[in-house]
Amino acid sequence: MEPSRLRDMPLYNSRIINSFILLVKHKYSHVDINELLEYAGMKDYEVADQAHWFRQDQVDRFYERLLQMTGNPKIAREAGRYAASPDVLGAMRQYILGLVDASSTFDIISKATANFTRSTTYHSRRLASNMVEITVTPAEPGLEKLYQCENRIGFFEAIVLMFNHKLTDLQYFPEIRHLPTIQQPECVFRGDPVCRYIVTWEKSVFTYLKKARNLLAPVLVAANLLLLFSLQGEGGLQILLGSLCLFLLVSLAAETSEKRAVKEGLSSTNQSIESLLEQIDLNYNNAMLTHEIGQRLGNFTRLEEMLMDVADIMQRRLEYDRGAIFLVNGDEGRLQLRASYGYGAGELACLNGLDLPLDPNGAGKDVYVACLKEQRPFLVNDLELEKETLGRRTLACALKNGTRAFICCPVVSDGISLGVLTAENVKAKRPLVERDVSLLMGTASIIGISYRNCELIGALEQAKQELEERVEQRTADLEQSRRKIELQHEELTRTLFELEEETAQRLQALEQLGEKERMLLQQNRLAALGEMISNIAHQWRQPLNELGLIVQELPVMYDRGGLSREYLGESVARFMKVLTHTSRTIDDFRNFFKPDKEAVSFRVAEVVQKTLSLVQESFRHLQIAVDLQIKGDPVITGHPNEFSQAILNILFNARDAFLDRRIERREIRVAVFEEQGRSVVTVRDNAGGIPEGILEKIFDPYFTTRGPERGTGIGLYMSKMIIEKNIPGRLTARNVAGGAEFRIEAPGKARRVERPD
């Protein structure tokens, strides 16, 4: 276990501190006990409660302050010895005086000390009838202090003193004689793992008499035989009778002493049993209180009846002089007295006159309001010491009613504060302790449950009545609604028939729209086909010219005599190279118009490069320079041919802008890159841009600025359809310095790279 964790646990029973307090009252009357307890963080009722335990730091602060106030460095050992005094004897009686002698007490010391401390374990071993060895093992090294070791030594002395001295002789304790001898061969404060004590005390009269009886029998037998032999039988009867009388007297004295010790032990045990029976009777009343409240309160449906019955049960079962129940009055925002017992008319008038508003700015600080809001109990054994806690009005009422001590506990249900339960003592019977708080807290919780039960039952009865009225009204409404539903059913039937007809018409319209889109796509392809035929012508013109030159060169070289085998091979190779290039061009155009069957992942840069290769000759012929910049390797999932067609439509749109406006320096910059995880293609030209008035219309179908004889107006529309529906992605256009820029964005798969300049 972690040291800090054990140090924060309750380790020492309040009876240890109580022995110190009683010693201070007896010998050091000048010491302010209230100041001492306040410095240690203890309450007087906690010390009086034998079920309460204190932490190591509280005990340390208590001893530190006590040492300063008394100036006695041996105060811890004296307090241990003081356990044998009549003042403290009641706390030790049931553990020690019920035994026969000190040796028997040390035999069960491990069990007895467990009721006083949890910081160490005790083990005893009997060495002789008046000598024991006690080994004390700490639960954690470094936890206890040296003064606690000295207090243990005094406690061991107290155990012996209880049996070897009359209690009246201890009134002037510790000025006593014949203290037991205690040796300490091992001590944790000298670096040893345990504390070992050897306790030796004077033998009791009972021990001496018993030993004398056991030794006297063989001595008398030997002496009688010797005297009979020396006197030759004369006076033998007298000698025998005298010896027998002497032995009987010693035996009788030993027996009487032993019976006296047993009788004293039985007397102490009887007193412990009486005390235990009183505690059992108290526990029985407490149990019956909880049982009766729990059993009877569940049958009440009215709050006033429930509160009166609770007050009656508390008066019969609890040992407190009087009690009261305050509940929150939500309308007035204050605590209000609702039930009580044990109060006279004048005392009740004082309680009813208390002004206990829940508003923090109302009557000032008050213990009842604090108990309600903080949902924690308050225990007060001394009104004068708790003036600040009580509040001015509550203190005045308590003093007027003669209250000596009281407890107030919050009545809570489902985390909501409902009121306060109080119990008071007028006569000084005993200090109120934590078990009283626990008992009243349990009672308060049952009251809270019963309070909610009454509210729920009342609400249920009201809801039942309202439900019956609503059912009656609802029945009439349902009959009226049934007639309306019949009429609505007839109308719905007609509406359904009309809706079916409208749905069929809409489906037909959708089919027609789909057919129109297919026709538009085909029209766009046909338009692109016309463009491609022109591009094919441009692509083939140069290779065909080159082939013609190769063929024309052959007869010339033959006439000159230079037509060698080597020259012929080079010419054929050149011819085949041009022919292969032309064939590849045919494949590129054919693949461009082949429809894609399914979406695939493709490299954007490759598709853009192939698209540019289809128009490079026609663009070069028109003196349009195309600059391609590629950063990274973005990938898109879709139909590569359709994507290529979208790029081609944008390029043709830029070409037409150059031709219409007669731009001399014609440039198109195509960029392929990634931006924030998306694949991007931009096509920028310097053709003067798009007029702002038509910028938002350029993607509409059949929209063109060139006239029907020069353009179809579906190219950009089809490009947007391909990008945004089939990929899906996004196609936008904007004006930039000197021209326009079309931007294609689509979900990408490659890592992000910088955008090209």
**How many strand segments?**
18
User: What structural class results from the helix and strand content?
Assistant: alpha+beta
Helix content: 55-70%
**Mean of pLDDT:** 76
Q: Biggest sheet: strands, sense, closure?
A: 5 strands, antiparallel
Low-confidence stretches: 89-95, 166-172, 750-754
Could you characterize what this model shows?
By secondary structure, the protein is an alpha+beta fold. Helices cover 57% and strands 16% of the residues. The protein contains 22 helices and 18 strands. The strands form 5 sheets. A 5-stranded antiparallel beta sheet has the order 8-7-11-10-9, with helices on both faces. The chain has a 5-stranded mixed beta sheet with strand order 13-15-16-18-17. It starts with a helix and ends in a 10-residue tail after the last strand. The model is unreliable at 89-95, 166-172 and 750-754 (pLDDT under 50).
Which descriptors would you attach to this protein?
757 residues; alpha+beta; five-stranded antiparallel β-sheet
In short:
InterPro entries: GAF (IPR003018), HATPase_dom (IPR003594), His_kinase_dom (IPR005467). Helix content is 57%, strand content 16%. It is built from 22 helices and 18 strands.
